[in-house]
Design a protein that fits this description.
Largest sheet: 3 strands, antiparallel
Strand content: 15-25%
Radius of gyration: 28 Å
Structural class: alpha+beta
Distance between the termini: 125 Å
Order of helices and strands: HHEHHHHEEEEH
Number of strands: 5
Shape: elongated
Length: 212
């Protein structure tokens, strides 16, 4: 007697493992989410960098408007742009010399900067190095002293203050930076490694009043 044949329904047949396909799909989704995340972070960093350059222009034009010379305005520009300057290259360690500590109470031009930045949240770098060295930088008497007091890897990407005037009673300062882009997945959004930022500030020129 022939045994009746039994065919298992198609839906009940065992399927081949699809774990490899699921892994690839998960990896693709994670890559897309990471690209979106890093793109958003880079965009926020660019907006922040623009505000820093605007602040640098504002600080520079204030210094110029009250009659400070080119050297002092340059130092103001540099200090105001530190958040865009990248990693610190000088000094290379957190050690502060005894001479710097002893001269702390005799600082003059940098004292206002010390008091203003002391109100801001601080990092260990700020507490150990910048808090002491920014006033020393502001009090430097010639160009050769600056690099040994404070320097950053991206400071050269920030221009010196560019003076512009719209009339005899107005002074303007323009500051630019080729801001480096370093976030992952950069090539998904741009072909370049940097963006050009240009900000300008203008004020009434009060230098004759202050220099009398």
């Amino acid at each position: 007697m022939q045994r009746p044949s039994f065919h298992r329904p198609e839906a009940l047949k065992p399927h081949r493992s699809k774990s490899g396909q699921a892994l690839l799909e998960t990896f693709g989704i994670m890559m897309l989410l990471c690209m979106i995340l890093f793109g958003m972070i880079q965009y926020v960093l660019m907006l922040t960098a623009t505000e820093v350059i605007q602040y640098s222009a504002d600080a520079s034009v204030r210094a110029r408007a009250v009659g400070f010379n080119d050297f002092m305005v340059y130092k103001v520009n540099r200090v105001a742009s530190i958040p865009n300057a990248g990693l610190m290259t000088s000094p290379s360690s957190a050690g502060i010399s005894n001479a710097q500590t002893q001269n702390w109470d005799t600082l003059s031009a940098g004292e206002a900067f010390r008091r203003s930045i002391a109100q801001n949240p601080s990092s260990s770098q700020y507490q150990n190095i910048e808090y002491n060295n920014i006033p020393l930088y502001m009090d430097a008497e010639h160009w050769g002293q600056l690099g040994g007091i404070l320097d950053y890897e991206d400071w050269d990407s920030i221009s010196r203050p560019i003076y512009t005037t719209t009339s005899g009673d107005t002074v303007g300062v323009t500051v630019t930076q080729d801001y480096p882009l370093r976030m992952p997945f950069l090539r998904a959004f741009t072909d370049g490694n940097e963006i050009h930022i240009r900000q300008e500030a203008r004020l009434a020129d009060h230098s004759e009043l202050y220099l009398q």
